[in-house]
Here is the input.
Amino acid sequence: MTTLMITPYAPYRDGIAAYAIQEVRRRRASGEDLEVLSPLPSAAHLHLRLGGVAGMIKLTSIARKYDRLVIQFFPEMIFGRTKTGAERLAIWTSLLGIVKMVPTELRIHEVQYQPMRDHQSEQTAARRVLEAAAEVTVHTEQERAELSEASGFSKDRIELLDHGSSFAAHVTLSKEEARNRLGLPSDEIVLLCIGFLQAHKGFDRAMQAFLRLDAPNASLHVVGDVRVYHPDLEAHARTLASLADTSERVHLHRRFVGDAEFDTWLQAADTVVLPYREIWSSGVVERAKLFDTPIIAAAVGGLGDQGEGITLVADDGELLVAIAEACGVGDRVEIASSWDGTLSSQQAIQAEIRRRARTDDRPIEAEPSGTQDKLSELEVLDMPHPISLKPWINQTKSLIGRATNWQIHPLVVNANETTTALRDAITLLEQRVAELEAKLDEDEP
Amino acid sequence: MVEARSDVTSPGTIAFIPPRYGPEVVGGAEAVVSETAHGLAARGWNVEVLTTCASDHYTWANHYPAGLSSDGLVSVHRFPTVVNKPARDRDRIGGMILAGQDVPIQDQQLWMNDGLRVPDLWHYLLDNSHRYRAIVVAPYMFWTSFCCGQVDAAKTVVMPCLHDEPTAYLDLFQPLINGAAGTWFLAGPERDLARRIFHVPTNNALVGAGVDVPKSYEPSRFIEEFGIEGPFAFFAGRREWGKGWTDLMNAFGFAVSQGVDLRLVTAGVGDPTIPSHLADRVIDVGFITEEQRNNAMAAASVYIQPSEMESFSRTVMEAWLAGTPVIANAASDVVSWHVERSQAGVTYRTNTELVESLRFVASQPDVAAELAIPGRQYVLDNYAPERVLDAMEQSLLEWTVPVPAEATAGGRAQ
Here is the structure.
């Protein structure tokens, strides 16, 4: 029996890809005849451009050659290039044909439930597909409840699958060896935020909290890079960099991290801090468990369902306390007391607010200016793709694309780079103006 | 070639993963891999080469049959290549990389995957990496190294064969080097460069590359065989732009116009482009055997290394072993490093310097031959195969752990 798994795959650095590789390895090691199809050319046996109707139709003809399918189902891969509800419905319909034809496991990841809640037609189409699937699996109780509620699909038919069931450590190092490799001191308490640099990961929250502590024997390391180039992600990375600049104990290691280095960090750390603003379930939690590294995580999504040994925090206050305790200075966290009414001027109140928050001399966030706001609203340009349900329109657009893309592409690249450069220049300019204004204020008698 | 050592039990199984392997394959990294594979096999390691069916690195066409074969003591597993055509993304993004543009990471990944891929090799390694004590990948920039080098990084040794070129600076390659169990460097400047670009693991060694010492030379045989008249400069290698071929033709043409009385003999795979006005001064002998190459090295008045992109430069060592001086492109940090350390040659920074270097060899052949004398000892002292293998084996034993017998079972056949 031959199984086909449809998933992003190595060597792309992507959470689902890393997850899928480990499952493929485990299943093939157990003797299963398993092949892989990925949406981009990769180490997979096959590749097919998914995300649109045409790809899903082609998948139908490929799928029929296999005895079983496993689809790592997440919206970007399935619906990534669609623009209209009609296209989404066409994809659901094609998918229904596939799951009826070949026994299929739908492994649900990071699904946006809102379209199902907002549109009856989407909900019905999704439910039909789920009902026709041989198996529907998720990683957390939270996801199971949400999927069932949004789609109307019976919760009893949604199976819970341990997120880390296929995970294996990529390194076998002691903590001391791991620290040696990374050049970290052996006698310091090391806190770690690791993963792609994205606002929803909340690494800035951990940095803010850590910066409020007097923990001279501890350091916080934020490790990772943006997953793809995008002005918003770059802006967030700059925020993290500016926070890291304010203390010698906070470090941003902005680089593309491979599996081995990822695990080396997890082994080297005393505590992993995951203050996510939103998440479905976390692969980092499962990897940290492989090394018995304690975890502080925000109580969002399904993180609470990912087993014991996680210190869940509800808000920034709890995060501060948890981080302080991990740094061995839990007793030094100031308990907020009520105000005694001795302050009345705006400046004094403002200063007290900042003193209490311990943000008086530290940047909260690299706030974009109004001009930068406008720039950030500019979308990253992409090459136009033929989008239509009518094949002849697609073909015509493809032909036009082939004839003109060589001219358009440099313009697209140029426009994107110009936007970034402009934003950087404005940031620099605003900084210098602020410095000059501050200097003028000082010089004034 | 080193004789098999029978008095030791095998320290383990090691996989070498070059993009190409075989007698027709001309390339420095591939030669080092082959030499090391055979050397370690002779020392009792179980050595497997996992490679492609290709022999041509332009087309990556499947030339050898897929499957298992043996090359002396070395087992060779070949896997079919898959090549995207027309590889528009690779061409487009490759142009951006060469132009030094800031290429987003998603485009870097697309560039890597929109060309040669070997999914069966990758899955073979995924299924079988537990059997190997060590996995050696080289050189860094090919899909085989990039992808396979990260399947089981904890036991992977990367021999990057790094040059100072735009691709080396891509974020894409950071995990390959930074996450490896160890790194072998062929020359000091290569390691310096790597340290500037990567967070090189503490497990790294300057091992060099082993160069076999020919038992004897018959220079007259080469001269007779190919009908070479008069003194000549020699170049052996890939006759392509990236290896300095075009510059060499331009510079040699200039030298000829300046009255330098030397011929240029070249050797390598494929048909090189030789300007018509140099047709009677540049003699290309095509692909030659190892013995013919050694004889040519000995017969030449000088060996020219025009390439800037060298991570070791085996042919320079072969010239010195044969007692022949070297004229090298000073833009190659590695070859300049060898020349500075050995004092057995000169480097040039401009075409005029090359012309004068050639004029020196043509007019003072005895002094030039004398210049070459310390070169042989330099190679023997630093790159004798046994010495290099000692360093490699020592690092493998230090950086990797033996695989328990029970763990070598399982896996999947090709």
